[in-house]
Amino acid sequence: MLDLTTLFIERFGTSTAEQSVQYYFSPGRVNLIGEHIDYNGGQVLPIAISQGIRAAVRPTTNKLIRIQSINNNGELTVDIDTEGFAKRPNNWMNYPLGVIYKLWKSQQKLKKHLRIFETGFEMLIDSNLPMGSGLSSSAALEVVVAYVLFNQSYKKNLNQNDFMRVTLAILCQKAENDFVGVKCGIMDQFAVAMSKQNHALLLECDTLRYQYVPFQMRKYAMVILNTNKPRALADSKYNERKAECEQALNIIKKHSAIKQLCEATLNDLDFIDNPTLLRRARHVITENTRVTQTAKALIEGNWIQVGELLNLSHQSLRDDYEVTGFELDTLSSIARHTEGCVGSRMTGAGFGGCAIAIVKNELLEDFKITVANEYHKQTGLRLGIYDVSAQDGVKEL
Question: What is the model's pTM?
Answer without folding.
Answer: 0.91
